[in-house]
Inverse folding.
C-alpha cells in the first residue's frame, strides 16, 4: 500500500471556493515518507480576510503562484495507484474531484481513508481529534497549522502513528474490527481486511500483554486477584506514630520528590484543622481559595486517620474533572511520599462502567440502531478494551450517537447476573466495588453519595468520616437526588429497549430464543399481546408531553437549546386549567403500563421455572430490569402529576430545539437542610466540607443554615476555618468599577447600555490584546453584544467566541480560547466556575452583571416563599448570599497561580451604590479596588499592566 496524504487550503471553509495552496505527502510501502509536494495556487480572486487570518496566506503570497492547471499537472502523476488520505478527507476530496474535472482529468477512483476515523478507533480516549491538538499530544512539530504542506505532513505523521498502534494490537482485536466493518463494503472494511490477512500470516504474537476471553482482548485480568494494600501480619504502620511525626516524614519526601515544593501557611493550617475534626469527631467548614493546595490539605490527614483507625474515609467531589485530577495527579504523587503503602480508589455511579456481557451480546448480534455510527462506537470500544483498566466511560471520547450506544451497554443493577455472569471476574463495576472495599480512601461524587443513601447504603462501602470537596454544590445535588427528575426519554428509551418494533428488541429476541420450546407458542402470544400495550403507552405519553410542553412560557435570559429555556413552576394550590384532564391522560399511562408490567412479570416467571439456558438467563435479567424501571417511572409520573406534597416544588423545563422531546419534570424538596442533618451530620462521626467559596462577608452563617448544621454549631460539634490566600492579590489583581456606567432593568439592555458596553469592552480588549473573558448572566444580553463587538474587534485582529453562538461545548470553547492568540470569550452561567485558564491566556475578566439567580426560577421562588413565612427577608437571606458565592467563583477564574496577574472589571455599579454591594466586595480575597469614570478605565488598565512592580507599596 502506498498512501498519498492530501491537504488543500481554500478561499471558502465550505465546499465552495478556490484552492490557494496544495500539500501532498507520499508514504511508501515501507511506511516511510518519501516525498513532500507543496505549492501555492493563484485563485484568480481576492482571499477573504478571514481566510488570511486563519492560514496566514495573503494575496501577495499567491500573486505569482502557478494557476490551478499548472499545479495539477505537477500533482496528478503523484496520485497514481495510491490510497488517498486526509484529515476530514471529504473536504479535500471534494476539491480534488472538482479540480480534476475542471482541468480535464478523469476522476480519482482509488480508495479513500480518513485519519479522523483512524484516530477515533485507535485512540478512543483522545480529548479532541483536531489536527493541532493531536499533533501536540503526539509531540510532532506542527509549526504552521492551516498551511497545506505543514498540515499534510502532520496528517502523514498521525497516520503513521495510528498504523503503528494498529499493528501492535492483538490479532483477535484486528479480527473483530475486520468482522465489524465487513458487511458494509467500505474502504475502512477493505483496510482492516488487508491488515487481518497480514497479521494472520505472522507467527504467533505476544500473548502475555493481554487477557483473552470469549473472543475479546482485555487489558485487565480477574479482579479477584487484587489483594489489600498492606500485609495484615505486619501490624499497623502508624502504631505509636503521631500525626506530626507522620507529616514530618511526608514533608521530607515531598521536598525530595518535587523540585519546587514549598510549604504554604494555608495548607499547613488545613492539615491541622482537618486532622482536628477527624480526631475529635466534629464537623468542619473550611474555605480554601485557589492555590492553597486543598486536595493534599485533606488527603494527607484522611490517609493518616484511615490507616491509623483502620476505617475508610470517603472523599466526595461534585465534578468528574476533580475526581480525575485526584486519580491522575494527586494520588500517584501521594503514593510516592507517604511512608507506607496505602490504597485510594475512585468509585463512580454504576452507569459509568461498561457491562461486558451486554457489549459482547450487542456486537455478536449486531444490534445497531444507527449502523454507520454504531460500527464506529463499537470499533472504538473493542480497541479501548485493550487499553482500559477501569471500563469507565469518562475515558472514551464518544461522538454523535455514541451516548445512546453507551446507554445500551452500561452496567445496571437491575440487569446484573452477579456471580452467574460469565464475565463476573472481569466485570469493571465489580472490580471498582472490590477495590473500593479494600481501599483506605474512596473517592466518589456527590451524586453517588445520595444514590447510596437512597439505596439504604448498599452501594458504597461503610464509612464514618467523609470529606466533601466543592461543598457549595452539596445542597443543590441533594435536592435533585432526594427529589425526582424525569425526562421525556426516560420512558421512551425503556420502552424501545423492550420493543424496537414488533420484531426487534429484548422481548422479540426472547421469543426467537424460546422458539424450540414446547410452550413457545403460548409464550410467543403473551409477548405479542404486550406489543400493542407498549405502542399505546408511547402514544399517550407523546400526547401528554406535547400538552405539557404547550403550557411552558419561554424564559428571557436563557440561550436557545438550553434545557431550561422554557420553564414553568406548577403550584399545588393553583394547578393550570384542565390539569384534571391531564391527570386522566396520566391515569391511562398508569393503567396501561401496569398491565404491560404484570404480563411481563408473569411471562418471565413461567420461562424462568422452565428454562436453564444461560443465553435466556441474561436476556430475562435484562427484561426484568427494564420492567422494574417501568414500574419506577410509572410511580414517579403519578407522584409528579398528583402534585400534593406541600414541601416539594414542582416544575417543568424544555428547550426550543427539541420541544416536547426535551421535556424534563422536576419535583424537589424546597428545603433539604433537615434531611442532610438527618442523613449525614447526625449519623457520621466527622464530615469535612471544603470549597473556595463557602463564606459570605467573612461569615459561614449562610452555609450553616442551608446545610442543616445549626444544631452541630450549637452543640460545639462544628469547627470553622477560613484560610488565608497564598496569593498576593493586592499585587496580582486590580478590580475596576466604572462608576458612571448605565444600569439595566431585567435581562436585556437598552440601546445606550449595549452601545457603551460594546465600546468599553472593545477598548479594553485592544489594551489587553484579547485574552479576555466576559461573563454575562443572561444569554439575551450576550447576543445583543456579540455582533457589534465582533465588528469592533475585527479590525484589530482580535477574534470573538460566544457561548451558544459559536458551536462547541464549554470545554471546547475554553480550549479554543486558550490555543488562540488574541481572543475574547463571552460566556454565561456555566463559565462562572470550574473553568481553569492559568497563565497568560486570561488577563482580563469582565463581569457585566452581578450573578443573581433569576428570581422566577421555580426553586428560588419556592425557597423565597418559605423564608417569607419564617418572617425572614429572602433577598438578604438567599439571593444575595447565592450571588456572592457565584461572584467569588467568577472572580476566582482570574488568578490561578502565584505568577498570574490580571484585571477584573465590574460593570454593575450596584456593587458601590446599593446597600448590599459591600457584601460582594468584602467577600473577595483582597484585590486592589478602584472606581473611576468609564473613560479613565483603559488608560489605568494599560498603566497597571505595563508596570507590575511599582504597585507594591
Amino acid at each position: 500500500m502506498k498512501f498519498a496524504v492530501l491537504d488543500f487550503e481554500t478561499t471558502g471553509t465550505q465546499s465552495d471556493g478556490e484552492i490557494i495552496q496544495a500539500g501532498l505527502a507520499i508514504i511508501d510501502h515501507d511506511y516511510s515518507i518519501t516525498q513532500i509536494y507543496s505549492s501555492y495556487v493563484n485563485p484568480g480572486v481576492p482571499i477573504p480576510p478571514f481566510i488570511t487570518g486563519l492560514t496566514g496566506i495573503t494575496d501577495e503570497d499567491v500573486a505569482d503562484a502557478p494557476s490551478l492547471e499548472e499545479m495539477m499537472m505537477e500533482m496528478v502523476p503523484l496520485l497514481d495507484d495510491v490510497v488517498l488520505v486526509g484529515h476530514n478527507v471529504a473536504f479535500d476530496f471534494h476539491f480534488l474531484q472538482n479540480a480534476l474535472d475542471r482541468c480535464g482529468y478523469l476522476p480519482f477512483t482509488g480508495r479513500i481513508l480518513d485519519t479522523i476515523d483512524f484516530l477515533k478507533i485507535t485512540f478512543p480516549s483522545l480529548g479532541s481529534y483536531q489536527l493541532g491538538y493531536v499533533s501536540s499530544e503526539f509531540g510532532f512539530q506542527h509549526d504552521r497549522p492551516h498551511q497545506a504542506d505543514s498540515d499534510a505532513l502532520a496528517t502523514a505523521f498521525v497516520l503513521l502513528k495510528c498504523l503503528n498502534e494498529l499493528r501492535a494490537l492483538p490479532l483477535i482485536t484486528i479480527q473483530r474490527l475486520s468482522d465489524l466493518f465487513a458487511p458494509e463494503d467500505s474502504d475502512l472494511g477493505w483496510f482492516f481486511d488487508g491488515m487481518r490477512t497480514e497479521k494472520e500470516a505472522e507467527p504467533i504474537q505476544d500473548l502475555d500483554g493481554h487477557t483473552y476471553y470469549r473472543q475479546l482482548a482485555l487489558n485487565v485480568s480477574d479482579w479477584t486477584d487484587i489483594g489489600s494494600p498492606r500485609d495484615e501480619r505486619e501490624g499497623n504502620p502508624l502504631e505509636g506514630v503521631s500525626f506530626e511525626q507522620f507529616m514530618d516524614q511526608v514533608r521530607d519526601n515531598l521536598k525530595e520528590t518535587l523540585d519546587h515544593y514549598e510549604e504554604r501557611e494555608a495548607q499547613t493550617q488545613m492539615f491541622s484543622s482537618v486532622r482536628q475534626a477527624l480526631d475529635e469527631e466534629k464537623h468542619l467548614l473550611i474555605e480554601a481559595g485557589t492555590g492553597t493546595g486543598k486536595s493534599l490539605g485533606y488527603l494527607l490527614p484522611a490517609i493518616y486517620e484511615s490507616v491509623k483507625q483502620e476505617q475508610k474515609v470517603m472523599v466526595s467531589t461534585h465534578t468528574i474533572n476533580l475526581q480525575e485530577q485526584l486519580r491522575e495527579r494527586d494520588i500517584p504523587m501521594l503514593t510516592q511520599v507517604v511512608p507506607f503503602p496505602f490504597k485510594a480508589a475512585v468509585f463512580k455511579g454504576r452507569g459509568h462502567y461498561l457491562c461486558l456481557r451486554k457489549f459482547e451480546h450487542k456486537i455478536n448480534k449486531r444490534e445497531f440502531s444507527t449502523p454507520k455510527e454504531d460500527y464506529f462506537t463499537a470499533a472504538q470500544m473493542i480497541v479501548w478494551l485493550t487499553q482500559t483498566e477501569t471500563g469507565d466511560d469518562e475515558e472514551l471520547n464518544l461522538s454523535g450517537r455514541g451516548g445512546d450506544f453507551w446507554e445500551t451497554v452500561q452496567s445496571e443493577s437491575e440487569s446484573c447476573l452477579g456471580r452467574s455472569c460469565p464475565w463476573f471476574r472481569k466485570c469493571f463495576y465489580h472490580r471498582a466495588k472490590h477495590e473500593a472495599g479494600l481501599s483506605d480512601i474512596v473517592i466518589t461524587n456527590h451524586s453517588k453519595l445520595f444514590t447510596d443513601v437512597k439505596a439504604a447504603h448498599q452501594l458504597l462501602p461503610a464509612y464514618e468520616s467523609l470529606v466533601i470537596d466543592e461543598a457549595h454544590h452539596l445542597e443543590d445535588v441533594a435536592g435533585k437526588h432526594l427529589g425526582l427528575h424525569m425526562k421525556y426519554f426516560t420512558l421512551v428509551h425503556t420502552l424501545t429497549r423492550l420493543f424496537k418494533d414488533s420484531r426487534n428488541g429484548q422481548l422479540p429476541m426472547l421469543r426467537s430464543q424460546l422458539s424450540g420450546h414446547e410452550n413457545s407458542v403460548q409464550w410467543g402470544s403473551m409477548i405479542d399481546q404486550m406489543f400493542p400495550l407498549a405502542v399505546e403507552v408511547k402514544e399517550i405519553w407523546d400526547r401528554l408531553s406535547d400538552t405539557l410542553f404547550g403550557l411552558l412560557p419561554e424564559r428571557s435570559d436563557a440561550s436557545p437549546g438550553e434545557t431550561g429555556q422554557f420553564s414553568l413552576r406548577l403550584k399545588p394550590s393553583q394547578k393550570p386549567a384542565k390539569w384534571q384532564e391531564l391527570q386522566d391522560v396520566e391515569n391511562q399511562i398508569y393503567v396501561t403500563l401496569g398491565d404491560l408490567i404484570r404480563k411481563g412479570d408473569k411471562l418471565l416467571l413461567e420461562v424462568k421455572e422452565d428454562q436453564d439456558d444461560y443465553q435466556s438467563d441474561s436476556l430475562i435479567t435484562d427484561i426484568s430490569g427494564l420492567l422494574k424501571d417501568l414500574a419506577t417511572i410509572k410511580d414517579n409520573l403519578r407522584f409528579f402529576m398528583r402534585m400534593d406534597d406541600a414541601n416539594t416544588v414542582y416544575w417543568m423545563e424544555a428547550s426550543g430545539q427539541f420541544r416536547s422531546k426535551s421535556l424534563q419534570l422536576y419535583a424537589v424538596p424546597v428545603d433539604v437542610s433537615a434531611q442532610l442533618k438527618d442523613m449525614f451530620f447526625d449519623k457520621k462521626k466527622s464530615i469535612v466540607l471544603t470549597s473556595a467559596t463557602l463564606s459570605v462577608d467573612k461569615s459561614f452563617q449562610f452555609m450553616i443554615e442551608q446545610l442543616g448544621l445549626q444544631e452541630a454549631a450549637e452543640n460545639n460539634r462544628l469547627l470553622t476555618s477560613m484560610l488565608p490566600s497564598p496569593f498576593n492579590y493586592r499585587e496580582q489583581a486590580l478590580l475596576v468599577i466604572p462608576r458612571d456606567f448605565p444600569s439595566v432593568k431585567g435581562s436585556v439592555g437598552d440601546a445606550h447600555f449595549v452601545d457603551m458596553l460594546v465600546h468599553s469592552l472593545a477598548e479594553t480588549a485592544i489594551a489587553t490584546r484579547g485574552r479576555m473573558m466576559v461573563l454575562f448572566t443572561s444569554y439575551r444580553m450576550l447576543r445583543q453584544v456579540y455582533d457589534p463587538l465582533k465588528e469592533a474587534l475585527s479590525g484589530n485582529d482580535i477574534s470573538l467566541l460566544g457561548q451558544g453562538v459559536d458551536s462547541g461545548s464549554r470545554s471546547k470553547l475554553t480550549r479554543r480560547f486558550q490555543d488562540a492568540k488574541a481572543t475574547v470569550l463571552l460566556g454565561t452561567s456555566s463559565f462562572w466556575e470550574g473553568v481553569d485558564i492559568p497563565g497568560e491566556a486570561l488577563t482580563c475578566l469582565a463581569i457585566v452583571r452581578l450573578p443573581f439567580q433569576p428570581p422566577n426560577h421555580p426553586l428560588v421562588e419556592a425557597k423565597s416563599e418559605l423564608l417569607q413565612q419564617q418572617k425572614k427577608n429572602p433577598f438578604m437571606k438567599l439571593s444575595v448570599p447565592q450571588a456572592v458565592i457565584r461572584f467569588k467563583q467568577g472572580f476566582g477564574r482570574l488568578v490561578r497561580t502565584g505568577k498570574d496577574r490580571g484585571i477584573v472589571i465590574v460593570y454593575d455599579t450596584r456593587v458601590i451604590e446599593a446597600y448590599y454591594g459591600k457584601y460582594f466586595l468584602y467577600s473577595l480575597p483582597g484585590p486592589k479596588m478602584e472606581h473611576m469614570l468609564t473613560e479613565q478605565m483603559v488608560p489605568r488598565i494599560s498603566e497597571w499592566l505595563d508596570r507590575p512592580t511599582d504597585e507594591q507599596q
Remarks:
- Residues 579-610 form the longest helix (32 residues).
- Residues 69 and 103 are 6 Å apart (CA to CA).
- The domain at 729-946 is CATH 3.40.50.300 (Rossmann fold).
